[in-house]
């Protein structure tokens, strides 16, 4: 396709929107994630000599086009929602304006990156909401789709509010706190469970969490208590016990009682084993006495929705005279919004977010527009809509200063806190209002009939 | 955990099995995939100075242990099923015998790699079975979990029988045929659909597939016919038209009629849009006239089962005297098979696979064993069970000669062809017989009661 553009649309500029068409079941919001990698990609994108040679061997591309690729750089503009921004369907979370060829070449990487990281941040955020302040740890590396995904999942989960990860490489790369407990194999490599517990406690006197379900859980807890008392005698504290199977509600209550009775009330209870937001909500509602959850496969693969309905669609393109003309798709059930758009978030006088307006960039949220939309866009307090897309790449140069990971994490939390609780329910059917601006509505209507006639 | 082993089990050797506990719904088999990456990992595994410094900063590890890591190499043995081998639950597809510390350090990478690639090879294989010989192309890059996953998915799908991929980097890395068609944006960047079709046809006179559903599909097909006749006049052939929305059965029949009537009976029909094995089976049963399918998200994320219940469990460990003692887990619903195991595949006199025997390595499938198992292990023709696990790493050295990708692909096809058709149904409830050898059964029974007593 790029070669086609090269011959026929070399000077054409275009705008593309990256957005999600529909939310997965039970989801009421998404969390923007992946911008850091997009910006690194934009900085580094090149075709190497090796790449060109491979393409040449396909006997499909012209010499001129291959020569063009050797000098290829992305030189356009990119607008994006900062990582951690809560967003909704049809809202462009990335907007690219560039030579149509450049805008198209970056499509796959943008979609691939945002799909994974935003999907995981959204899933992990749901787990955080269900966890009601309990400790949450990413244990998904074994089942993420490759090691790259393992690292990105750890980062997205941390942004969403997780407390740490078992992925040591993610810890090294991003400074995320790393955690680990023992596995069954460690216990099984000793003749007696208690021996394995004592050996582990000796090795990590300040960070020991003992896995108690390899053989018989009740005996396992007893052995953990023995190890805990042994550490206590030496003036140290057993950190926790971990339950990885069975009925977590009754087992956690049993473990709590046994630990408390033994004077080990400071020992935390850690639960793991195919957990997700649904199960965690249920466990806590049923009175489980769990302090920390290890959440793996379900979060790390977004198991109930392992992809987003995320797309990258052209919304305007220049004509022969270099003027931008809006465009849109008319395919059945896949109609898009034309023109260069912006998302405006409206808050009430308490700072709570009450609605978004999907408009054209030239829309300004002002009393006049508000009046045209029936006066409903602005609250009584005279609040204003804040544009969510900010410029991050200018003529190919990254101009956005990336916040630290902990700042992104804090921003995610404060951002989410300003939405109604109904949004954050595990089984949410809440639909946050996203209103299409009158000007965009009108453009879409008139363009649709114009295109139907033209074709 | 490794530090615990370092202090308490430095000389212990252990065997670990990597296997799948349960199959996802509708699945009756899995396809081994990922060994190539495992072997590369074993060759290259090192802790860099940078890694050690990071670990040091955690203030968790002893100087001795960190020093040990600087010299760390995997020095054990690995047995594995060759890529493309069809296998079933509880069958070890990788078996590691090594220092317990080394065997444990490689766990995460092994699970992560085999989970992704085997899951995708199995899913893609189902699509291939449903496709009944039609062309199948991997279009999943936009929705795979990261770019690494995109590349691995392309490879796994090709092994399973796909014909090509849209992931150009996978084409470059693995020599997989790459394919591409135009996207809606290309059409929309021109004022008239026909202009975009002619431009594309000029650019790729021998490999043009035109996307006909951007505006009105019927008009789109007409425009494609115009472009096809234009190419025909110049002595060239339009390759295909692509349908990406709407009712593929009626639209493909309409397209076929219109193309044939215009003398373009050689033009292929390409269908895409959220396809999977269920939809492809349905489309073909309902009489769709499709020659090639582009299969994306559903295959590339294994959307109905985005993870396998894959685990890595210790099965034997040496005692103080260096003797291997079998071990097993007794956790509720998670009991494992002890001992050093092998999988034997039994075929009938026609070469059809009829059952597998999960046994101990020292089990030999011979008439004596057959007799002990009630004579049912061997067919009347006196056929023999072939061991599926072969040695691929010897004392840390990779001794397995990797077959070419095309050889693996052929092996997968011929391997699958020897199983009954019931296994390959899209909605399969067939359970291929995997029999536990008498000796293994006995070991498991006696060990379970022994462990219960001991703890």
Question: How is the topology of this model organized?
Answer:
The structure is a homodimer of 455-residue chains.
Chain A: H1 2-8, E1 13-20, E2 30-31, H2 35-44, H3 49-57, H4 63-70, E3 77-80, E4 86-87, E5 94-99, H5 100-105, H6 107-131, E6 135-138, H7 147-160, E7 164-165, H8 168-174, H9 184-188, H10 193-203, E8 209-211, H11 217-233, E9 240-243, H12 248-261, E10 268-271, H13 277-285, E11 292-295, H14 297-300, E12 310-318, E13 324-326, E14 341-347, E15 353-360, H15 367-372, E16 385-387, E17 390-394, E18 397-398, H16 405-417, E19 434-436, H17 438-454
Written account of the structure:
The structure is a homodimer of 455-residue chains. With 455 residues, the first copy, chain A, is an alpha/beta fold. The first copy, chain A, folds into two domains: 2-121 and 305-338 and 389-454, nicotinate phosphoribosyltransferase, CATH 3.20.140.10; 133-300, Alpha-Beta Barrel (TIM Barrel). Helix content of chain A is 40%, strand content 18%. Chain A is built from 17 helices and 19 strands. A seven-stranded antiparallel sheet of chain A has the order 13-12-1-5-3-17-18. Chain A has a six-stranded parallel sheet with strand order 7-6-11-10-9-8. A four-stranded mixed sheet of chain A has the order 16-14-15-19. In chain A, helix 3 (49-57) runs antiparallel to helix 4 (63-70). The radius of gyration of chain A is 26 Å and the shape is elongated. Chain A starts with a helix and ends with a helix. Chains A and B meet through helix 1, helix 3, helix 6, helix 7 and helix 8 of A and helix 1, helix 3, helix 6, helix 7 and helix 8 of B.
